[in-house]
Amino acid sequence: MNDAKNTSSEGSAAGSFSPRPLTAAMANEVERLLSGRTRDIRLTGDLLSRFDERSWRQRSKVIRSWMTWVAFVDVLTLALNALLLPSDVALAMVAPACLLPPAAIATALIWRKPRAAAVQRASLLGGMCLILLSVALVGVFAGGEFYERHLTIMLFVATSAITIFSVPLAWTIAIACYALCLYFILQWYNPLMEAGSVVAGTLFFSCGIIATVVARRTMNILAQKTFLLDCRDQRRNAELADANARLERLARTDPLTGIANRRWMMETLEGLWLSGRDTGVVAAMLMCDIDHFKALNDKLGHGEGDRCLVKVAGIIQSCVRADRDLVSRHGGEEFLIVLPDVDEEEAVAVATRIRESVEAAALPNPSSGVGPSVTLSVGVALKSARDTGISLANLQHEADMALYRAKEAGRNQISVFRRQHQAAPSEQIAARRQG
Fold it and tell me: How far apart are CA 321 and CA 402, in angstroms?
């Protein structure tokens, strides 16, 4: 039998269930249980704790509703008996009937929030014992035709509880055994019943209650199987989301340098431009190019060229604001940098810091026409709030033009693109550093 114990803890939330990721061991156990026969499913350990945590709210709601209605029906029945039955019979029913409402209400109150498993078990089984005893004693005290009638009603009450209470099978069996034993004992002392009839009646009702217990066991197993399927789906969805996230990172990341690639940068910039269409986007765009990179590859090999790209990318990232500025590998040995909310002076300062840091790193490039180490040329283009007619493509083209002029001027330079309305007369604002 699937004698699962309720292991809900005091600290479990009574509200909605929040799924947590499965551990590898739990995932393996889920697969093992689902690969076998459904009737052999038995939850243990952490899986059982999770199942109880997830099902507690619905279980407690059903139990509290059942207890409340049983108490209400008991009071209503007692009132109707007082109106319809002889006064002596009705008075005989009062004392045992008064046992049921407090037991049912107390059980419902205990099940309002998660408690220790022992408390939940004791409250439910104790409450059911008192409820069934109350129903049975009403008939015993009234006597006559009410004796057997209320014992049958008592079995009906027990059967309804067994059917709808989604509790561990051991609890269900305890309720069934108590109801049948109470029926047999009280019927045995029923002066209107013969011993053979008592045994026959007990066996008859036993068959029905056993069938109900078996059905309840099947429902418990199916509920646990549904839980296992949900756990497997949850894990697969998490793995799929993880894979999608990795693919997304790969799609927007340059595999060599680890920084953003051209596609991600352009998509991000398009969003920036669209969001700032009305207010105006203030930004600087820096186009960087490693000087004589082809010569480095030809002289030292592509492996050294790749290492150079990785180190230059790291230097550039260390020179910008990590929380605001955007850096990407634009293609080959080119890097594109976008600096939001900066003026010309700040943009040139960043470009200078990048150029000087790359030169100071002294990465070897023996075939460079500038010097023995790797250097960088930088083109700078700016868009102010008043440049409303400047598109993203325009700004990128201007940064390219500034880079081209820096290379024409001898490389290892910073060149700023200037439009006609800009006041500074010179387009070349950073001098070449002699290596």
Answer: 23
